[in-house]
Amino acid sequence: MKRVDKRPRWFAWGARRERGNAQSDLRKRLLLVCSFLGLASVGLLARALNLQVINHAFYQEQGDARFLRDLPIATSRGMITDRNGEPLAISSPVESIWANPRELLKSPARLPALAQALGMPQDELAQRLSTRAGKEFVYLKRRINPDEAARILALEIPGVASQREYRRFYPQGEMLAQVLGFTSIDDRGQEGLELAFDDWLSGTPGVKRVIRDNKGRIVENVDLVRAAQPGRELTLSIDRRIQYLTHRELRNAISETGAASGSAVVLDVATGEVLAMTNFPTFNPNAVGSSPRDAHRNRAVTDLLEPGSTMKPITVAAGLEAGVITPQTLFNTSPGWIANGKYRTTDTHNYGVLDTTGIIRKSSNVGASLVAKRLTDAQFNNFLRRFGYGSSTHSGFPGEAAGLFPQPDRWSGTSKQTMSYGYGLSVTPLQIATAYAALGNGGLLHQPSFVKDQHNPPKRVLDENIAHEVLRMMQTVTEPGGTATQAAILGYHVAGKTGTSRKASAGGYSRRYIGYFAGLVPVDHPRFAMVVAVNDPDPSRKGYYGGVVAGPVFRSTMEGALRLMDVAPDNLDAWLAVQDAAEAKRAKAAGHAAPQLASVAPAATSKLPAPGGVQ
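^ Peptidoglycan D,D-transpeptidase FtsI, sequence as received from the core. Prediction below:
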């Protein structure tokens, strides 16, 4: 049976209206939701457009900052060699262990193993990491053997990695320590020629771009930003063989005489190049941290000393140039002293009347004073300055001292006289060697150089004939009757001069000495100039005179150097005489009659006249 709706008509109409309103509200809500979703989609698209197109560079940088890194590519420092190509300083590849403290501190249980592998206390490692907890990089151990670094990395501790570096190595050890100097842990020159030529030797590190993960490990090499450029090679004037001889003989002399220190310099007379330079005490440049700071000083270039009697040939040369003396001029040195203001200038003996050569041969303070009296202050001052006294030699060595040589207006009434025999002014051993090399080079002075074949034009400081005259006078010093017979070399004429200066102390001079020998060989055509300074020898051992403590160093070093460089003898008469005597001794020991041996002087003997009538 059909159901009849008995509700009023107005009620049905209201129900239909309610259903219509509900449907309308649903449509509105759907429209609202769709509109919101549409707007959200537009916003996401706009955001994507902003990220991918408009502000791409900014957000790329932000992303790269978290994972992309520019890392330095280590480069080697230039090698230093001697004049013959022998290595004196080389750079070897090493590894440095570093860590990301942020990552490493997340694994505190691994710290004990890491500390043990690094060879450091765990507390020290923890403190180093905690003080840099906000950083991403800290060195843990630098410049170690690659095998040791591999053992540390094999532990696979999060945040620990390594990088390539270079360490300087000096194959000659202490032999050239003060000359070469050393580098810092960052491979920058600190002293010596490493410092002087740091810009030349230093390479340019490269840069590579890599991607690192959150543990600091490199997962991809992205780009080579800049290739590494190694440092340039430096060829020194040093001859390693002559350096070894010089170092060995000076070391022996310091040991035998009980001296506090010493220096020796060998120059090539024709070029001014430094062939050898050594000092004691010395140090091992491969272990700088364990050496005393005082041993780092290159005393031959930085220490100022009163030159003593090594000044006398220069004083005589000044007198010869001024024309106030000749090689035959006679000087009465009796009674062995001369007044100098309220003081006295004395000789060790009363030598009586000496000619100019005798002043040098006997090393007479009185004779040198009498020569200086004939010179004006201006003549003496200008001559010494021409030879480089009072100014730097301009060798380019860091910290080189210029010396102390006051201007004439600051001289007292006694200054010129005391300076004539080496007191009242201060010089370096290198300055003495430079002045003597000029005498041996016919009056041409070269600035000393540590670089092979460097352009180094000379300047004339003395007439050639006067230079030869002074050399012949100096030759008598190493001959019988001279003060340095222990510096004589069989087969060669040696020109030299001893020096024994008292060391200055508060209020005057002490009873402590510096013994010198400065010489040239061979006299006919000088090849080498050498200066030896032995500071504060023990008088109870071998004495303190320069001829005794320094002369033998010259002889032993030059004997080896002359053989190494194949320098022909210029005194074969003496060599043949010794050979004859040795042959006769051997024949006598064998019971045979000594053969008649004729010692004929060869054409290679000296061609210069003997000075001052000395035969």
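Residues 298 and 350 are 39 Å apart (CA to CA).
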